[in-house]
What we know:
Layout (H helix, E strand, L loop, with lengths): L13 E6 L7 H14 L27 H19 L16 E5 L9 H5 L15 E8 L8 E7 L4 H9 L6 E3 L6 H5 L5
Antiparallel strand pairs: 1-3, 2-4, 2-5, 3-4
Helix pairs in contact: 1-2
Amino acid sequence: MPRGPFERAPGPSRLLYSTPDCAQSLDAFQESLTETIDWCGPRARRETAATCLRTPSLRPRLLVDEHRFSALEHVHRERGHAVKRASPEPASPRAPGDLGGGRLLVFFPDDTTSDGGAAMATGGFFDDDNVPPWDTWVGMFREDPEPAQQSEDYVISWVPPVFVEAVAQGIQANPESCIQWLEDSTTLMAQRLKDLR
Length: 197
């Protein structure tokens, strides 16, 4: 069952769990980001916003239950296999901070009211539950957050350049603030990734 924000004693945020594992270093995050950009960049089309970044073979379980981390692991695994089939040579690593013209987005699955406003504002980039397309998912994180109003679980996804303006409109249409630009969020990963803007 989804849980909302909880009360805790004041103190710094702590990362409890992440996929990929970012406890010691951001290298795994950077690898996932590079793969996400390489996969999504050529597929991103404004005219097919609802489908172009929802590859059927990568389709995960819902993010609103206790299996959300395995859902993200499924996307990573299947996307990794698809990337290797398409290009056996490893992709050139991106320089830290290189977002390929896109932006990073954070989605708090426990905070969505599933009102469909962001989906309507973006032509289907977000679904009716405000979930960004699964092809764009870079990582999922659980933290013991400060401030206490922030939910503990969130997904970071990459927004291709052609969708940045539409996603900004979707964020404006989202009254519960379950979708935010990463740099505008209070997440620990926003602090750790502040150079990726």
